[in-house]
Amino acid sequence: MDPVRNPYAPGAGQRPPELAGRDRELQQFEVVLERVARGRPERSMVVTGLRGVGKTVLLNTFKSMAMQRLWGTGKIEARPDQSIRRPVAAALHMAIRELAPRHRAPERIEEFLGVLKAFAMRDPAAAKGTSHWSPGIEVPASRGRADSGDLEIDLTELFVDAASVATDLGVGIALFIDEMQDVQAADVSALCAACHELSQSGGPLIVVGAGLPHLPSVLSASKSYSERLFRYARIDKLDRDAADLALILPAREEEVEFTQDALDALYEAADGYPYFVQAYGKVAWDLAPRSPITLDDVKVSAPEAEEELAVGFFGSRYERATPAERDYMHAMAQIGDEPVPTAEVADALGRKPSSLSPARDSLIKKGLIYSAERGLIAFTVPHFGRFLRAQPI
Ligand SMILES: Nc1ncnc2c1ncn2[C@@H]1O[C@H](COP(=O)(O)OP(=O)(O)OP(=O)(O)O)[C@@H](O)[C@H]1O
Ligand SMILES: [Mg+2]
């Protein structure tokens, strides 16, 4: 059928035509926004899940919800090799720019921008003169606030000031952090401490995160009270009804239907994982001659969808691993699809567990595997074991 009208959207952070099966998380976030705006004590939210389950999409939806309530919003994507100081400064700059036109006292905005600039300029790279980066803020940097160089103190002061600007307008500020497991350890600790301070003062600023399933343990390793700061929402594959709706509703908009056995086969193939639902749906649409999309259409299109996934979804990640890391992952895949004991991986490779730590740690850093619980390791990418078993070693 007409590929131009194809509604499905496989891709990183691609907004799906129908955000299926996430009503509970959306409702929870509504409540968070409402309570924070009213100065009620409330835990912020952190979304966790495997690759391709829709964390980024959900975070973007939360951001839209906050913007609809006229909140100031900003978003960053954490990177393991980068301090969050500059990205946070840029994100709060965006948030304040959203609020500024509605604020009655321009000098309050200017005052905040001066603090924000001072905060941004304390970046270690800028201090060493190794960077010509400038925060793009016109006002002169102020002195004596958020510029101590200690990120915990500086973030706390910055957040308090930002929250106070939002309070003037009766709204809040939401700072979104994607790939939050990649925030450097020292920065995680500073971030949690700043959120903790802020939650005690009731200031309307929240940090909303998304990351891989081990994010809660990253946060609690840094600050034991992190569980009281964040409500963890683990999102997973869609159940049968939601997966069907994700396919049916966008098609219906285009007056296209699926036969029941086509839906059965699509669910079997995609296993409810949102990325796979979009990928199989997209190819089935393109190859089906007419509505309804039938079981035969799905059968004909599945190999092409699998091929695309093998290259784009699995292959691109596999490519990032070194030969030693690949061996490690192949050994994991041979053991099984559930989280596997690291000791068993070492056994399978005939190695001492300690000698494999570098490979394991760098795979974790690359976001390909995560430590499910102590001594257990699992793939972050759904169906990755199956993909590896089909690869020649
Ligand atoms: N609730 C949903 N219903 C239908 N499709 C969805 C849903 N959530 C996400 N998708 C689709 O799944 C794909 C992956 O979404 P997204 O990039 O948000 O995943 P992610 O969890 O952030 O993955 P990664 O860990 O790789 O960053 C996108 O193509 C998106 O359109
Ligand atoms: Mg993402």
Automatic annotation (TrEMBL):
<keyword id="KW-0408">Iron</keyword>
<dbReference type="GO" id="GO:0020037">
    <property type="term" value="F:heme binding"/>
</dbReference>
<dbReference type="InterPro" id="IPR009056">
    <property type="entry name" value="Cyt_c-like_dom"/>
</dbReference>
<keyword id="KW-0479">Metal-binding</keyword>
<dbReference type="InterPro" id="IPR027417">
    <property type="entry name" value="P-loop_NTPase"/>
</dbReference>
<dbReference type="GO" id="GO:0009055">
    <property type="term" value="F:electron transfer activity"/>
</dbReference>
<feature type="region of interest" description="Disordered">
    <location>
        <begin position="1"/>
        <end position="23"/>
    </location>
</feature>
<dbReference type="Pfam" id="PF13191">
    <property type="entry name" value="AAA_16"/>
</dbReference>
<dbReference type="GO" id="GO:0046872">
    <property type="term" value="F:metal ion binding"/>
</dbReference>
<dbReference type="InterPro" id="IPR041664">
    <property type="entry name" value="AAA_16"/>
</dbReference>
<feature type="domain" description="Cytochrome c">
    <location>
        <begin position="167"/>
        <end position="318"/>
    </location>
</feature>
<protein>
    <submittedName>
        <fullName>ATPase</fullName>
    </submittedName>
</protein>
<keyword id="KW-0349">Heme</keyword>
